[in-house]
Design brief:
With 164 residues, the chain is an alpha/beta fold. It contains 4 helices and 6 strands; from the N terminus they run E-H-E-H-E-H-H-E-E-E. It folds into 2 domains: 91 residues, Dihydrofolate Reductase, subunit A; 58 residues, no CATH class. Helix content is 20%, strand content 23%.
Length: 164
């Protein structure tokens, strides 16, 4: 149940945006119950009207974006929708699939990777081979790293291989 709030620094809480093509977020999620900023949930167009009403009653604002051919939301359309609503900077926080999608479409201009001393399995995100559905990885320039507690944080600006 992510919070998507500022907790370890000073500053205002960001506009939470949830990409949920089928409006599956539970109406009692923290974002809807407790978040100080009303969340925007982006669903596939057209959204399920019954779920839309339930989530709006719980405090969400619902917007719709077209689905891409893979069944997920069209990321470029989502970014245009957010731009039209005044959002000029977006931090993508999520699981392997959404992060890999933004990287595969080269829609990132800064990457922050947190490496925790925990080995887990799941969807492989970072594979170098661009064939068979794997995403090409950029090199990073202006790279910095630091240790935060037990984690290592690496960040930099992607340089995309133009031949891919």
């Amino acid at each position: 149940d992510p919070k998507l709030t500022v907790r370890y620094a000073k500053g205002e809480n960001p506009q939470p945006v949830v990409m949920d093509s089928h409006l599956r977020i539970p109406p009692d999620a923290y974002l809807l119950r407790e978040h100080p900023v009303r969340p925007l949930i982006i669903a596939a167009d057209p959204p399920d009207e019954g779920r839309k009403k339930i989530l709006e009653k719980a405090g969400a604002r619902i917007a719709a974006a077209p689905a891409a051919g893979n069944g997920y939301l069209d990321l470029k359309a989502v970014l245009h929708l957010l731009y039209d609503r005044g959002l000029r900077s977006v931090m993508v926080e999520g699981g392997a699939r959404i992060i890999a999608s933004f990287i595969a479409e080269k829609l990132v201009d800064h990457i922050i990777i947190t490496v925790a001393p925990i080995l887990i399995g799941g969807v492989p995100v970072f594979e170098r081979n661009s064939g068979s559905g794997r995403i090409p990885l950029p090199k990073l320039q202006n790279m910095h790293h630091r240790q935060m507690g037990r984690d290592i944080v690496v960040q930099g600006n992607p340089v995309w291989d133009r031949s891919v």
